[in-house]
Design a protein that fits this description.
single chain, Porin, two-stranded antiparallel ribbon, 59% strand, mainly beta, 1 helix, disordered N terminus
């Protein structure tokens, strides 16, 4: 079983939620950890709100690992997502620039029955996302924008018999999409919701005008619910996600189960196909001051067509985790267990 080598030093100032309006707020977190997929990791995450008194936020992650991952993320939002939560606003803008290089990425083939393997190869992404949003009411938000992913997948020849030039996504490719999202959101917070609903419908369509190497449409519906079981810090969180892709998409843009954001007892990108159904439940509790604990279970499956998803052979994982709550983000550590073993994942933000 993977294990955490060292707890990170932490620091933070400021407050979160609507109280941050017009108040400068800083949170930062040095990283020293272990993850089953990327090895020993080191780096830092920091976030600054209202530096220029415009309700804006700047978020930066700098990270490296002993298995060769390099992960850099810069996010700019105006107004900040947490500040605008539950308010009516005419226009908001979010920019996200991400670079992620893995020397040891996975591919197991397509389908819900794909066998496990230990063969790995390099994969490199550079992503840019530009989103504009408007809140028509305190609960109803519409978003539209563009998404670009320049990918490079290489080093698999002679190493991985399943990975070859005919797999969508092999080699160097550009995926460029137009994105539309509609969200009904009654949560009291984006950072650490304790009550409310989030119902989201997302549609992505690749655009030939933006030189996309692939042509596909991706539809996703997600429903999340949060409620306080025992006042004030014992929370039940539920998630249901349905996704379907029509057309030819690279394997890393398809419906995926496995890793720290879906079924946490399986390797990253463990099951890949066009359609997906996924459910999760978490019981979140306060342990001591800023430190919290989580018990969770995830279950899902993939299929070549959404209508072929059945109740058979769902991929189930369960486990526990720790959460450390700073003013502007949540630090997450999860240990997931499945029939294929145990996995440990470290990241930022709740899984949902």
């Amino acid at each position: 079983m993977a294990f955490l080598l060292a707890a990170c030093l932490t620091a933070g100032t400021g407050v979160s939620g609507s109280d941050t309006c017009r108040v400068r707020s800083i949170s930062y977190f040095p990283i020293l950890m272990y993850d089953s997929d990327i090895g020993f990791g080191f780096g830092a995450k920091g976030m600054v709100k209202n530096q220029f008194r415009k309700n804006e936020s700047f978020d930066l992650i700098l990270f490296g690992s002993t298995k060769g991952e390099q992960w850099y993320v810069f996010t700019f939002s105006v107004p900040d997502m947490e500040i605008r939560q539950g308010s009516v606003y005419p226009l908001a803008f979010d920019l996200k620039l991400e670079y992620d290089k893995l020397l040891k990425s996975n591919f197991f083939g397509f389908g819900n029955e794909s066998p496990d393997n230990d063969r790995q190869f390099p994969k490199e992404f550079t992503k840019l996302e530009l989103m504009f949003s408007r809140a028509f009411t305190r609960k109803l938000v519409a978003e539209a924008g563009l998404y670009f992913n320049f990918s490079s997948v290489y080093g698999y020849r002679g190493v991985h018999p399943l990975m070859h030039e005919n797999i969508p996504g092999a080699g160097e490719n550009l995926t460029s999409c137009g994105t539309v999202r509609l969200c009904f959101d009654t949560r009291n917070s984006r950072i650490h919701p304790k009550k409310g609903w989030k119902l989201g419908l997302n549609a992505d369509r690749t655009l030939r005008a933006l030189k996309s190497d692939f042509q596909f449409t991706r539809m996703q519906f997600e429903a999340c619910h949060y409620r306080i079981l025992f006042y004030p810090e014992h929370i039940l969180a539920l998630r249901l996600r349905l996704q379907h892709i029509q057309g030819t998409a690279p394997y890393y843009e398809q419906s995926i189960i496995g890793g720290g954001w879906t079924a946490r007892g399986f390797k990253a990108d463990r099951f890949v196909d066009a359609a997906l159904a996924l459910g999760s439940v978490e019981y979140r509790m306060k342990l001591y001051k800023r430190l919290g604990g989580v018990l969770f279970a995830d279950a899902g499956r993939v299929s070549p067509e959404f209508r072929k998803i059945t109740l058979d052979d769902w991929k189930i994982s369960w486990g526990c985790g720790l959460r450390y709550y700073l003013a502007n983000f949540v630090v997450r550590l999860d240990i997931g267990i499945s029939r294929e073993g145990e996995r440990l994942f470290f990241n930022f933000g709740h899984v949902f």
